[in-house]
Amino acid sequence: MTSDILRETVIQDETAMFTMTTDLTSWTGSPGVQRRASFVKFATDEAHVEAREPEGDLIPPTVDAAALRDHLSDLGKDFGLELKILTGRRRYRDSTDFHFDHRQTWCDVRLFSGNRSYNVSVRDGTDDVVLLPNLLAGMAQELLTQRERRSLPVYRIPHSSTVVLRPNLAGILVHELIGHLLEETDPKHVGPKGFSVEAQGPPGRAFDDFGEPVQHLFLVKDGVVSRRDRRERGRGFAQAGWHQGPPIVRFTDLTVSSCTSSGAMPQDEFVVCHRSRGAELVGQRALVSVDDAELVRDGVTVGRLRPFLFTVDAEGLTETMVALLGNSVPGRAGMCVKAGQSLPTRVTSPSIVLNRVALYEIA
Question: Residue 272's closest CA among 293, 299, 289?
Fold first, then answer.
């Protein structure tokens, strides 16, 4: 074995197989395999299951499509479900013969209403197929609530407004403005006093993808960034997405663990944001698109808003964030793409209140 360590990756799907070798710093990995184990899709009154043979000893879990459908009976026939199960393995060994083996399964779920445009949809995921029935039951209720909001009258988007980000969308903002920002930069402060964000290393693992012990740490404590040195902060958080390249630091599991106020809802007029089309960090500014939002006046919902975009600057978060409401709630899991690598991500957060945010209509 030479001092230059290589990882060999094998990716196989229904169309092709190829091998990619990537230089790493101090680790070698035996071939790992990504498999799309099964795909379940049913819309209206159709049901179809397509299964692919497992590779070697990577035996993917199986699902009962009919049983899953029973948990979606409240949706009637106007819905579709897409389920993708990935299973993979990585083995690492260094020059001292220290090694570890990591296996991973991820179920990516999309539940949508009406058609494939996903205008009314919920996405979530889990690493345990046993949890799929309960997961789908909760997603079905959320989809029904989205449908009800679609029947509200449409109002003009205000130029600026106080916005209440419900936990799932609040988590997206935290993921971008805390997670990604602190992966790349070393600011002194992010957020107001009382705002704290804790990061957990890759779930269910003893080591990250560089062989460092995983750790839990506060990225932000009372608005102050802890462990200012980025390299030290990232130890135990290196991950590679399904054999798509070398590991990089990824803060994929975050928890907002404190609150900044007594938790009172805003008064007069404000916007409640439920669902995002997506978000991106540009420099030190988060861009968040919203496609499911209500306009509230004097405590009463008067209508819904068309899709819009808002931005929040990291430096301005101290003044913009005025409250966190209620208990922290796990948000829906999503897939985050960075440097061409996709990883499951989830943020546990309460609702976040942002004061006087500019809103921009999306054409």
Answer: 293
DSSP state at residue 303: E
Rounded to whole angstroms, the Cα distance separating 180 from 184 reads: 7
Query: For residue 163, with 0-12 CB atoms within 10 Å meaning exposed, 13-18 middle and 19 or more buried, which class applies?
Result: buried
Going from the C-alpha of 92 to that of each of 10, 32, 105, 112, 360, the distances in angstroms are 15, 10, 18, 39, 48
Q: How far apart are the C-alpha atoms of 266 and 155, rounded to whole Å? A: 19
> Over its length of 363 residues, how does the chain's per-residue pLDDT go in tens digits?
222 232 333 333 322 222 222 333 333 333 333 333 333 333 333 333 333 444 445 555 666 766 777 778 788 777 778 887 777 666 666 556 666 666 777 888 888 876 554 478 899 999 888 888 889 999 999 999 998 999 999 999 999 999 999 999 999 999 999 999 999 888 888 988 889 999 998 877 888 877 788 989 999 999 999 876 778 888 889 887 765 667 889 999 999 985 555 456 777 899 999 999 889 999 999 999 999 999 999 989 999 999 999 999 998 898 999 888 888 889 999 889 888 888 899 999 999 999 989 999 987
